[in-house]
Amino acid sequence: MISNIIRYLISCLSAWYPNKKISHKKDIIIRNEIFEKSKKIKINKKILKKTHINFNKQIIHLLKSNNLKNFLRENFIQKMFFLQNRLFIFKELSELKNSKKWKRYEKLLIEDHVGNPI
Q1: pLDDT (tens digit per residue) in 91-113
Q2: CA gyration radius for the chain?
Q3: The whole model's pTM is what?
Q4: Cα–Cα distances in Å, from 91 out to 23, 111, 112?
């Protein structure tokens, strides 16, 4: 509970940064395709741990809700896929920028705005 509140407050630090919006038409097409594919998903509980089963259930519920516009802001997605320690991220990015391979890394780090990321 406390970690959810802290995560939300930290996400507010990026509220000033404007995200580009994807077109409404493209958004609808993507959502419908994901919704149709989500109907076929089955969880194989035999090979998964309880935490993975719970995460899969949450993901499937989110996919079937067809409300994916802000999915990257969902708390359980944030916990699973994103690191909130901005100082660590800054340090890692600085190391990449100082690398001889920066041009290559720079191309790999380009992000899109699907899911309304923080």
Answers
A1: 999 999 999 999 999 998 887 77
A2: 17
A3: 0.59
A4: 34, 19, 22
